[in-house]
Amino acid sequence: MSKYDILIIGGGPIGMACGIAAKKSGLSYVIVEKGCLVNSLYNYPVNITFFSTPERLEIGGVPFMSLNPKPKKQEAVEYYRVVAQMYQLNIHLFEQVNEMKRQADRSFIITTSKHTYIADNIIISTGFYDMPQLMNVPGEGLPKVRHYYHDPHYYAFQKVIVVGAQNSGVDAALETWRKGAEVTMVIREPQIGERVKYWVRPDIINRIEEGNIKAYYNSSIAAIRETQADIQTPEGMVTIENNFVIAMTGYKPDFALLKKFGINLSDDEKKIPEYDPETMETNQKGIYLAGVVCGGMDTHKWFIENSREHADKIVKHINGKV
User: Do the Cβ atoms of 310 and 19 come closer than 8 Å?
Assistant: First the structure.
């Protein structure tokens, strides 16, 4: 049974930043990731472009060289893989955390799908992309319904419903339409999301106004069947023929894991976990949060560029205890 100063849950950019900070400080650590390296980024759509410039995505002082002012997904995945190799990070991939128990000496026993560890401290940096927010409508479990969108070619010449009008929904609608899909957007709000990338928002608005993409505003999916879908609109129920539903309804942190670890969540709909912003330590001594998980359901508060500093805050506090 291996013993570490820190066990980090999550092998994304912020989890990696925590590992780098621990290594630089001489603390022993291990990163446990349930999927591949930077699993969430890997599962982003193929053609995604980041809002951020390359230097704002850097970790560990390693320059991020990009061919574009705003890097693409594959560039980011390659960059973080190179960083992991450069620092020779102690990272265990495809390993799910199952249980945690606190011992009498205040250290933790962490059981995963492959190993058991002892750690004096835990950092939870699990992001939010692994758990989609469900629509909770009849037929949502059909194979034609997708909560993740990857490659537009798959939907060529198909009748596609895209649910949602934020960045992911707009990207899915435009890309599948350009591959020959017949696209219908179902949008709860009265307009395309204001946070949509500034160079993309005019594109989708123009495609809707010219009639190439159909949009139902102030509307929602009511039911899904093998070849049809029902849409509740302000004018009443509309039924359309349909091959696929791409439900870009957002994602949420793993609240079950936070609760299992005894971390308090706010009583409102945001479910913000309790932590000290100066140290990132939660109400459970020795357990820290890093990255977007700190925002609860407010998943637009924390990004790579403004949560990289969490790693240094946490390691500084742990070193102070040591």
Answer: no
User: What's the mean per-residue pLDDT of the chain?
Assistant: 94
Question: CB atoms < 10 A from the CB of 63, how many?
Answer: 9
Cross-strand pairs, 132: 251
Q: What is the C-alpha separation between 131 and 148, in angstroms, rounded?
A: 10
Residues β-bridged to residue 247: 163
What's the pTM value of the predicted model, to 2 decimals? 0.88
For the chain, the domains span 2-131+251-321, 145-247
Tally of CB atoms within 10 A around 262: 12
User: Is the Cβ–Cβ distance between 260 and 176 less than 8 Å?
Assistant: no
pLDDT reported for residue 297: 87
Residue 45: pLDDT band with limits 50, 70, 90: confident
Decide whether 2-131+251-321 matches 145-247 in CATH topology.
Answer: yes
CA 138 to chain centre: 26
Sign of CA dihedral 8, 13, 18, 21: positive
* pLDDT score recorded for residue 293: 93
Residue 199: exposed, middle, or buried by beta-carbon count in 10 A (0-12, 13-18, 19+)?
Answer: exposed
Question: Do the strands 236-241 and 228-233 form a parallel or antiparallel pair, or are they unpaired?
Answer: antiparallel
Only one residue has tokens 């001489």, namely 26
CA angle 258, 263, 265 (to 5 degrees): 90
Provide the greatest CA pair distance for the chain: 67
Q: Band the pLDDT of 322: cuts 50, 70, 90.
A: low
Q: Which residues contact 239 (CB under 8 A, 6 or more apart)?
A: 228, 229, 230, 231
- Class of the CATH domain delimited by 145-247: alpha beta
Report how far apart, in Å, the C-alpha atoms of 165 and of each of 47, 193, 234, 262 are: 17, 6, 17, 35
For the 2-131+251-321 domain, the top CATH level (class) is alpha beta
